[in-house]
Specification:
alpha/beta; 2 domains; D-Maltodextrin-Binding Protein, domain 2; about 45% helix; 11 strands; five-stranded mixed sheet; 11 helices
Length: about 325
């Protein structure tokens, strides 16, 4: 290259460098202003469950409390169906500006691993903000059913393979996956009936369309009201509301299901916005109004910051992959 050409190229590079520096200098205040003004309009929180579910009640309350701290309304947006993955799907296509959030739960990871062509990647498509709580799961039957204990239900299922049926929120829900696991461990066969939401599920049991429900704590009022009987809980400890009901481990089954969940945004969110959201939701989590709802549904406080929440979900993927492989539900590589 001639000296003239070399000098020309050098001049072009200096011009490009100056333009880049100028553009960055102009952009930086705009970004800072956007972060400083956040939020300046309502925030949408996608709840992947129908109104009336226990998780819905909790998320609506914490959204209200977080909104008070952020100075803007956090608007609940119920999108039930698709095994509770519509929140994840909404984040995949949303702008990373902090105005679209969603509950991300263990079923999101599980559904991805079960899909031949998943709609999202839980490790790369979200910004993890805060882990909040988990679900108190259990198995309930009608109060007038013949089964007083878990052992009696298991005996009936062994005597009548495939004749007893149970309801959950879908094939890849944690409730169904746990029931599949239990059937394999216990050598029984039950028939699965998926439902879209809590009210339909509970009406199905009350109307004798199904024999058993495996679900989170939305059944608590019906157990307290005498319509349902709680046979066993899946968590690490007995529920305070029903101290006489054993855990799976106490019933001789080495299985614990806590199902931690939290709130995420789209990938690529600015750290300052993530921190502002995290701080508001953390304060909201410990607010008396939120804790009252959690007490009502026996929900544990499982707070973790963004980094710990993301790290746990990375480990969760490996665990879920092995669980799905064991029960024959892991999607085949494309």
């Amino acid at each position: 290259m001639s000296r003239v050409n070399m000098e020309g190229e050098a001049m072009k590079m200096r011009h490009l460098t100056r333009r880049t520096v100028l553009a960055s200098a102009l952009a930086a205040p705009a970004i800072a202003r956007a972060q400083g003004d956040f939020p300046n309009r309502p925030i949408k929180l996608v709840i992947p469950w129908p109104p009336g579910a226990s998780a819905d009640a909790f998320l609506r309350t914490i959204a209200d409390q977080a909104g008070k701290r952020l100075g803007q309304t956090v608007v609940p947006d119920n999108k039930p169906g698709a095994n509770g993955t519509f929140g994840a799907i909404a984040l995949k296509d949303a702008k990373p500006d902090g105005y679209t959030l969603a509950q991300i739960h263990t079923g999101v990871v599980r559904a991805q691993l079960m899909a031949e062509q998943p709609a999202y990647n839980a490790q790369t498509d979200f910004t993890y903000i805060i882990q909040l709580s988990g679900s108190a799961h259990g198995i309930v039957v009608r109060a007038d059913s013949p089964w007083q204990t878990l052992e009696e239900l298991i005996a009936a299922a062994k005597a009548n393979p495939g004749k007893l049926n149970y309801g959950t929120f879908g094939p890849s829900s944690v409730q169904n996956m746990t029931m599949v696991d239990l059937q394999q461990r216990l050598g029984i066969e039950l028939t699965h009936v998926p439902y879209r939401g809590g009210s339909e599920l509970y009406q199905g049991l009350l109307g004798k369309q199904i024999d058993i429900i495996a679900d989170a704590s939305g059944w608590i009022p019906l157990v307290q009201g005498g319509q349902f009987r709680l046979l066993v809980v899946w968590g690490s400890n007995r529920m305070k509301l029903f101290p006489e009901v054993r855990t799976l481990k106490e019933a001789g089954i080495e299985l614990v299901v806590n199902s931690p969940y939290g709130i995420c945004g789209p990938k690529g969110m600015e750290p300052a916005i993530v921190k502002k959201l995290h701080d508001a939701f953390k304060e909201a989590l410990y607010d008396a109004a939120t804790q009252a709802v959690m007490e009502k549904f026996s929900m544990p406080t499982l707070y973790q910051d963004a980094a710990a929440y993301q790290a746990d979900y990375k480990e969760l993927e490996a665990v879920e992959r092995e669980n799905l492989k064991r029960v024959g539900l892991l999607a085949k590589p494309g």
